[in-house]
Each structure stands twice: as C-alpha cells, then as structure tokens.
Amino acid sequence: MTEAAAEKAPVITTERTGVINWDSLPRRMMVVYVPLILFLLTLLFPFYWMVITAFKPNAELYNFNDYSPFWVSSPTLEHINRLLFQTDYPQWLWTTMVVAVCSTVLSLFVSVLAAYAVQRLRFKGSQWVGLAIYLAYLVPPSILFIPLATMIFKMGLYDSPLALILTYPTFLVPFCTWLLIGYFKSIPYELEECALIDGATRLQIMWKVTLPLAVPGLISAGIFAFTLSWNEFIYALAFIQSSEKKTVPVAVLTQLVEGDVYHWGSLMAGALLGSIPVALIYSFFVDYYVSSLTGAVKE
Amino acid sequence: MASAATVWDGRRPEQSWLSRKLDDRRVLAILFMLPVAALLLTFLSYPLGLGIWLGFTDTRIGRDGIWIGLENYTYLFEDSVFWLSVFNTIVYTVLATILKFALGLWLALLLNHHLPFKSLIRAIVLLPWIVPTVLSAIAFWWIYDPQFSIISYVLKGMGIIDTNIDFLGEPWNARLSLIAANVWRGIPFVAISLLAGLQTISPSLYEAAMIDGATAWERFVHVTVPMLMPILAVVLTFSVLFTFTDFQLVYAITRGGPNNATHLMATLAFQRAIPGGYLGEGAAIAVAMIPFLVASTIFSYVALARRKWQQGGSDD
Hints:
heterodimer, A: mainly alpha, MetI-like fold, 2 domains, two-stranded antiparallel ribbon, B: mainly alpha, 13 helices, 70% helix
C-alpha cells in the first residue's frame, strides 16, 4: 500500500506540470513493459510449441512426467525426415509455390492496369469503378466457393491447379488494385505532365515514369498477393482432390492425419515448414508490408 | 539551312493509326479495364448470382438441379442444426470481435510508447497474422489436445485443476477455444492498424488537453477515441466481415464438432455442399449469410464513420 502511494505521488506532480512521458520507471514497468511482454509471449507461444514439437522424439512428446514439456532433451529430425521422404510434402510445397506465384503475377498484371486506369486515366465514372472493385473485396470466399465449384466442374478444371490460379485473383485483384490506386495517388501528377509535354506517349509514360516510381507499391502488393494465395484454404479444399495436387495448408490437414492416429510431430513439422516461405518473404520486406498495410487502411 | 524540318509546326511526328489509338486516353482506359472486368465478372459477379440461383434449386454434385422455389429455405427453417450454426456464428463474431478490439487497442497503446527493439517487436506482433491460418490452427489443435494439452499441464502444475480440461469435447469449451484461437490470430491486424491511427494523432492535442487539466483517462476518451474513429470503422468492418465468414479455423480444429456444436454457417454450408453433395442446400446456407453480412457491414461502417463527417472530417 505504501509503495503504491509513493509511486502515485510523483506521477500526479508530473501530470500537473504538463510534461508527457516522464512517468517514473517502476510505474512504466508495470503499465507498459509487463503487459507488453505478456502479449508478446502469448503471441509467440503457439510457434514455440510448434517448433519444439517438430523436433521432439515421440518418447518425449507423450511423456510429460519424465521430461519437461517445455524443452527438448534429445532433438530429432525424425519427423521432418518422415515428412520429406515418406509423404508427398515436397510435391505439395511445389504446387503451392507454383499456384501462389502464377496467381500473384496474374493479379499484379490485372491490378496495375486497372489501378492506372482508375487513378491516372480518369475516365467518366472511374471513381465508381474504383468503389465497385473495393466492394468486390468484401465478397467473402465462403459465399462463392459452392457456385465456383460447379463452374470449375463444368469447365473441366476440377482437380487442376489451374482452377486455383484462376480463382485466387477474385480476392487478390480487388485488394491489390485498391492498394495500387492509393500508391499511384501518392506519385505527383506533374511528373507525367512533364513527360506528356516532352512528347512521350501514354504507354511510355506509364512504363517509364509511373511504374518505376511505383516499385515499392508493386512489391507490397506482390507480397500481399503471395501470402494470401499461400494461406488460401477453402478453394483449395473444395477444388482439388488428388493428394499430389493439394496445397500445403490443405494437405497437412487432410493427408497427414491417418484415421484417429495423429502424428503430432510430423503435423507440427509440416506446419512449421509450410510457414517458413511466407515468414522469410515477409521478414525481407517487413517495412514495405507495414507501411502499405497501414497506408491501405488509412485510405 | 532553311529546311522545313527545323521549323517545328507544333505537332508531334506522324504516328501510325494504332499508336495514335493507343495514345487516346479513353481507348487506353477501356483496354486497361478489360482484364479486370473479364476476371471479376466471370469469377466473382457471375458466381455470386449463380449461388443465389443454386439456393433455389435441388442441385447435387454431378446432377443439374431444377427450380424448387423456397424449399431449401423452408427446410433450413425447420433444421435445428442450421439455427445452431446461426447462433454459433453470431456468438463467435460478437465475442471474438469485442476481444480482438479490446486487446488490439490495448496492444496498440502499448506499442505507441517509446520502446527498445521496435522493429523486432513489430515483427513478432505481426507473425500470427502472416503464418497460414490453417497451420497455426493445427498448433492450437495440439495445444487443445485432450490428453497432452500444455494448458492443462500448466494449470495442473499450479494446482488450479485436477483433471485435464476437455477443450474440444464440450460444446462451450470448444466454442470458447475456437474464439480464443481466432482472437489470437486477429489481434495483430487490429493492433498494427490502430497503431498507425494513433501515430497520426498530433501530440499538441494531448498537450492542450493536459493544460486543460484532463486526466489520462479523459485524454483517452476525449482525444484518442474520437481521433481513431475513422480507422476503427474500417478495421471493424473488415474484422466483422472476415470473422462472420470464417471457415478455416473451425474446419481445421473441430470440423464443426462435437455433435455440430461449433458449426459456423460457412462450415455447415461446406459440409452439406461438398462432402454431403447437396450443392443447392449448401448454397442456400451461404446465401443466408448475405443479409447478416450486409447488415453488419452497414452498421459498423455507418455507426462509426458517420461521426467523421459530423466532426467535419473530409471523406477520403
């Protein structure tokens, strides 16, 4: 009680003098650092648990009495080994990569053109088209997957990765376009006017003036599209049937569980390996990512 | 010396018909809009309409359906599992959204202090959002294991409980476990977006409030919250929309069990349509989500965004 009172006193005086951020250290500890550390631990714990399970031998995994569950006494590569050499895991990774890269490239191409037309060519009603594209992002895949499944079936694309490459842009394009419209808006229009006066054609202006300046925007749209395609689940679950054509998230969930036997070690190893590509990409571009995320939300 | 070529007549060099057309703003705009129009009309607008139509038919996998009017809907109206899924979806959305925003706002306020290792902390915070949902859901599945749950182990060690918690076996335990996993995954997006909003608030507003003698709580209520409203509206709209239509987390962790107790409308639609084969009925369930979605979007956007123009903010 006395300690609390002693802590409170200087705070009140500093507040009254109108100085910000001069709280005493113990108070700052309690109010900022302790909750923050608790938050970070909670956010990290499932990953820690994933990593540690992936490297634990089965003997330790199912025996909490003799081994502390929080640590690995004798790490093993057994689960990863099983995953890579006794399942189709490498094939799943490859399929996911191909699907993610193709749908990202397709979406970027479509979005750049659309965003440039809406923001720079400014045809009649262009802001309505921009709004419609934004609204398209609000249509969730859980509503679309049933009719899309019947379409995919009729088009003969069922069980083909092409079905995913064609359907993923439905949620990638609205988002990328929205993001790029915001990015193009930030590039001064005067630059294009100068080029126009110098006799450049509109295609040259777009290709040689605007796009090079928009590279950071293109990179973040690309990262978004790639991670969203990598994470996609419901379309991949509904449109793909044969094991070797499944994407990582679907395959880990449906192929690694054999009946009632859960190989938790391999499951966690599969989840871990499947998370690494997106985590790597994102760690390289984290600054683009955050700035465009926050920028897009502010729009 | 006086050749005509040196006299500039104010025109550009002669161009071919095609390149002149390509330089026309309107022609170019149409050309640039063609791919996006083709893609979104084929794979978004058309299926949206097709889905509504399918809801009025008895289509099954491998067999075209015929128009049966409202039969799917009258059937669902009598179906207790459907109403359970509606109830679950609403509970899931409301509880998860409240928790995500309370905790996310708190985290954003914490991150808004001057901190060491800022970029590292930011990277850690975003991690749950980056990692594929299904893969982190599998980690939660393992954390919620009835026998080897680490949470039960810790609580038993602390002497709080005697037997393992049956996280996914009891209806309410399972619902709350799923909500916890959803909140865990949703906090980063809310926190980082609100942090961006917090950083745009000018410190002079806080100084002015302090000079007027406002306490920390009053500053939060009268400066921070109103200034955050516009961004809060956008983030809330998105969050409600994606929580309401969530599929992956529930499908990965419980698949709607135990005994349909955790089915959301999206998972029930999938269950009936793809493994069950009743595409028409599944489509009807999916279509039944649309009114809820439109209502919650309009509510969260209008209720919060309205305040922006009342305060004289601009519209962009």
